[in-house]
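Q: My labmate handed me this sequence with no annotations at all. I'd like to see what the chain might look like in three dimensions before we decide whether it's worth expressing. Could you predict it?
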Amino acid sequence: MKAYDIHTPIQFKKGVHQLNEEANFNFQLNRVINWDGGRLEDVAPVSAKIKTSADWKNVLISLGDKAMEEERTENAIAYYRMSEFFMYDGDPDKKKYYQLATELFYDYYRDYFEPEGNGVNPVVEHFQVPYEDVKLPVMHVVPKGEKKGTLLLHGGNDSYFEEFFFPILYLKDKGYEVYLFEGPGQGGVVRIQNKHFTHQWEKPVKAVLDYFKLEDVTIIGVSLGGYLAPRAAAFDTRITRVVAWSVFPCFLDVIIGDEPPAVQKLFYFLMKIRAKGLINWIFNSKAKKLPVIDWGLKHGMYAYEADSAYGYARKLKLYDMEPIADRITQDILIMGANQDHFINYHSIGKEIDMLTNVRSLTFRLFTDKEQAQDHCNCGNTKLALDTIMHWIEGINL
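A: Here is what I predict for the chain of 397 residues:
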């Protein structure tokens, strides 16, 4: 198989496309195109066929098979990778297609990972960092010429780190040394090594910082990373700047954030009195009607090692910034989106009120006028990355 030409300039796709009536399917299809290497001309004609998680699996695998037949490996990687996104724990195809996409990825982009000769390190170094009973995969890139700073980047609730491959190459070209890692609950760490999420994100971050002996680091957390990265910073002063690439004050609030205030109040009361049976019934009833709830519940029980909706909710209650917010003393940039289907950006007020001891706080709301209105600004990745770099450089003046 022909390898990707590493001399190709780093470019990002731009735009938010209306592809599916269901908000989460629509976002994930945009993600396939803008972040993962898919093509609009492949996805658009079949997107309306996706009504259920089973439809998603079948359509994406078919797109992957067609791309492989036509020797479009970059596209096949995207479709196979994301085909497993809505497969649930227990489906043997979940690991199968994750591994297939991963093998194709490292083969197709192999020239980035191979030494250039004469003792020169590869463009992207790959490490395995010991952490508890597993190893955390890390990609490392170093800029040519003057270095502007050191970044530690990680994803969130449903990420895999290959998704951020081109963002780290772009950041490298702009003068940044970047360490990109996958933690518990993410990518191959959960799918292959069976290491589930921890809300104590400072622990895997400490393992990476210790391993590479890093100081004066800007940590960037994407999606749920908007909670995880600030959480790590609260416990480690080697982190001097924090980018929360999503508003994320409390995971449980995010899950029920679109419900009326009275419903939210009732839900928290039921949690307080440990009404397990009733909470399970409510979530399971909603999951039968709404694909996003069905996916969120099943993925969550898998990634967070919970045996029920109630158990999952109890785990999510731990992902709350409030108990540790006063320990965060760094500069922080929080980035939101005005049409985020997961997170109501108005909760930024709650988050700002929590962060009473930060050195500085900047909030940047991206909008549909910038084609960056969706979750994690997937429609305009370049703008989001440029915003992060401009903020870092401004803080450093």
